[in-house]
Write a structure and sequence with these properties.
- This protein is about 45% helix and about 20% strand.
- It is an alpha/beta fold.
- It has one domain: Vaccinia Virus protein VP39 (Rossmann fold, 3-Layer(aba) Sandwich), CATH 3.40.50.
- The chain has a seven-stranded mixed beta sheet with strand order 3-2-1-4-5-7-6, sandwiched between helices.
- The model has no long low-confidence stretch (mean pLDDT about 100).
- The chain binds S-adenosyl-L-homocysteine, 3,4-dihydroxybenzoic acid (DHB) and magnesium ion (MG).
């Protein structure tokens, strides 16, 4: 098994199950043209996020790490009328591309993008007391995942689904000797999860067009 095969299978799945879409395809195209890194979720993963948000009946979604808004569009399209998505991004160039992509998708009235380091915008959100989120997608800098997860819990209620991307890191999550800050972050995150009685969680390894990685699903099971 190798990357070529994982990519071919992702192409096969996407060809059959994720039809071409002007807004999503345009978001990837314009993000690449603007020089953004090609690290958005894959089409199949984007659709998984969309399906999870619909399964969850999410009306309020929080995303940490917008990039060009590709995952944002998948998630926002799962919202019912009146639903809202808040997305947090530190890089003004990414935010600018995302705003254009979100507007082209017809979602400008549904999505609010907050520019700034998430370690600053998350406490602002908490202080605003503007309500809990039904689904939270954590997909920013990996070294700070433990801090984002702790803040996410403060913005959750019983039943909130927290999804964390890129937690397997080509298998390095199981390497206690790693000095990579991202790996240290995802390992610290798993330690935190193991001790966290307020959620029930698991991590799933994945292969695909983006290589070997994985994601965590954590369901809030306590009244917060
Ligand atoms: N969710 C996107 C991909 C996000 S890539 C998608 O799947 O389409 C990670 C993003 O997190 C990048 O845009 C990066 O600029 C942003 N980021 C990195 N550090 C951050 C921070 N401290 N606060 C907020 N966003 C951050
Ligand atoms: C990176 C970030 C991501 O969100 C991702 O899905 C893959 C890679 C990165 O920062 O390298
Ligand atoms: Mg990611």
């Amino acid at each position: 098994m190798n990357q070529d095969q994982w990519t071919a299978v992702d192409r096969y799945i996407t060809g059959l199950l994720v039809p071409p879409d002007a807004a999503l395809d345009g978001a990837l195209r314009d993000s690449a043209a603007a020089g953004l890194p090609p690290i958005a979720v894959s089409p199949a993963q984007g659709k998984l996020l969309h399906l999870l948000a619909r399964t969850q009946g999410a009306r309020r979604i929080l995303e940490i790490g917008t990039l060009g808004g590709y995952s944002t569009i998948w998630l926002a399209r799962a919202l019912p009328a009146g639903g809202q998505l808040m997305t947090l991004e530190v890089d003004p160039r990414h935010a600018e591309a995302a705003r254009a992509n979100i507007a082209r998708a017809g979602l400008a009235g549904v999505v609010e993008l907050r520019l700034g380091p998430a370690l600053e915008t998350l406490p602002q959100l908490i202080a605003e007391k503007s309500g809990r989120f039904d689904l939270i997608f954590i997909d920013a800098d990996k070294g700070a995942i433990p801090e984002y997860f702790a803040r996410a819990l403060e913005l959750s209620r019983r039943g909130t689904l927290i999804i964390v991307d890129n937690v397997v890191r080509n298998g390095a999550v199981a390497d206690p000797a790693s000095t990579d800050p991202a790996v240290i972050g995802v390992r610290r995150f798993h330690q935190l999860l193991a001790a966290e009685r307020r959620v029930s969680a698991t991590t799933i390894q994945t292969v695909g067009s983006k290589g070997y990685d994985g994601f965590t699903l954590a369901l809030v099971i306590a009244d917060l």
